[in-house]
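sorry for the late reply, my laptop died twice this morning and i had to redo everyting from scratch. anyway the thing you sent over, i finally got around to it. pasting the sequence first so we're on the same page, its 159 residues, then the predicted structure underneath. double check i copied it right bc i was rushing
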Amino acid sequence: MTGADVITGSDPGLETTGSLRLPSQKEGEPLTDAVAPGQDVRIAGTAAVVVMALGLGLMFIGVWRPRALLTVGIATLAAALVAVTGILFVSQLTDEAKEYAEFMVYLPDGKGVDVVGRAGEVVHLGVGFFITLFGLTVIAVTNLVLLLRRKPRSPGSSA
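ok and here's the structure:
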């Protein structure tokens, strides 16, 4: 599932086989609809994208110090929103996996296995999530280091 899927709530591309159906699924509804991102996940994801778009607008600020300061704040906020989105979505999918696992205990392959307790093992954050979080962190830290290392010029000095 991509970040665009999270924001739009579109098909996460999950396929199921067999006749098992989650209680939250309506008759004839595919599993993909049952695990589509919830509204809270979509709102947090959309907020992260909006904040990142605002960050792009910072390049039009001509004075470096205010630009760097705003970049630190916006990159930090965007990273926090990306993390919240990931946490919310993993929580939602883990709950769905646990619900699905409750049915699996009745299958022969599920006997003696704590399938409900291990449901969280099937839900993971992807590489794109970590690359985004890493990139935003690097942007924030780089700008913070620049702010701390460069002394502000006095009004009468020339560079």
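Residues 17 and 31 are 10 Å apart (CA to CA).
thats about all i looked at so far, will dig more tmrw
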